[in-house]
Structures are given as structure tokens and as C-alpha cells.
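We emphasize that the prediction below concerns an isolated chain of 237 residues; any contacts that depend on oligomerization or on bound cofactors are therefore not represented. The input was used exactly as deposited, without trimming of termini.
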Amino acid sequence: MPLECRWILSRLATATEECASGFTEGTYDFALATQSAYRFWLYELCDVFLELTKPIRNLPEGDPKKQLIQDVLLYVVEAGLRMLHPMMPFITEELYHRLPHFETLGTDSIMLADYPRNIPFKDEQVEAAIKTIMECVHSSRSMKAAYQLTNKNKPDVWLACADEETFTLLSTNAYIVETLGVVGAVLVIKSADEKDVPKGCGLTVVTKDINLHMMLKDFINIDAEVAKLQKGKALLQ
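Result of the prediction step, given as a C-alpha cell string:
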């Protein structure tokens, strides 16, 4: 199963656990329940997982990977609606009836469906791996924003890794950085090969084990950027 699928299932497990705790007598915490549901739907399902499902639209119908991701998406949306139902009863009821294959869900109303509990997909290792990848995504976005590059501008990126584990992780999942970072090709290299990165790149440190190089020379006015840096340097003196 793709890493992002295992991650969203793990995040669903955490969100449902927190929501159930927030609604339980003795540990009642409505703020915890609403914040957990909000975080899951907006920042995890929509901002990350849904964006990563977009490239599969280009795959042919019946492709095993496409079918798997669609199945995971339906599963987490259906469970997410049941999780959200006590807080938003009417809209979740309407959306529940609009789910694909609604007739197979086993109940005619979300009000009669079980509240999601004990989802057995929590995986801290997967969450740690996605956290590392998302740090690369955020660094890519920050560098693009610093140089006022839009989503139409997709510079190539080099990720230089100091250890073998990080190198393997990013090599296998470079498409996540490419998709969410809205960049061009993502090339993962080892720190020893960092000297071979082409000239014209900007550099930012992602973590102690990862450096990110972004090809900027074709997207910015280098002379103007140098002048801006010199002006800032003069103000500090």
C-alpha cells in the first residue's frame, strides 16, 4: 500500500480516537473533538491526501493502484463523515447518501451507523516518515514564496541526504514532494554528490540530514536579487 494511504489511515485512527474520547462521559472535551475533526478533514485529508490522489486520474480504469487509492479514499471519507456527524448532522447525512456505492454501506441513514472506534491502522513509523517528507514540501514552498514563484513556475529540486535511510525514503516517495511542493523533477542524491548539483540553485537546510537545492536561474532576475541582498546587508552594518 502506498505510504500516503497508510498515513491517512493512521491519521484517521488518531482523529477518531480523539473524537470518541471528547464525547465520552468522564473525559468529555468538546473542543478536543472539534479540533481533531477539523484537523483531519482540512489539513490531512484535503490538504495532503486528496492532492496526492489527483495524479491517479490519469491512470486507466481498472489499474490496481488507482483502485486501491480510490478504495482508501472512500473508506476514510465514509468514516470521517460518521466521525463528524454529531457536530454537523444535516450536511453529513446528505453527503453520506451521495457516497459511491451508498447501497453497500449497510444502513439507510448515517444516524444509524456506528460511530467509528478502534480503527486498527495507527502507525507511528509511517507518520514519522511523512513528517520528514512534508518538511521537504514546506521548504520547497517557502523557497518558492521567497522568490515570488507561482504554481506555474516549477523549478527542479535536488534533495541531498546525509544518511541511507533518508535517501531511501525520499527516493521512493519523491513524487510526494513534486506534487505537494508544486515543483518540477525531484532528484534525490547523497550528500557526497552535492558538489555535482548544477550552478544556479538556491539552497536551504531542511533538517540536519537534508539539504534542498532549487534551480532558480531560469525563474528570477539574479542581478536584482543580488542588489536586494546587498541592500539588506548595508542596513545591518
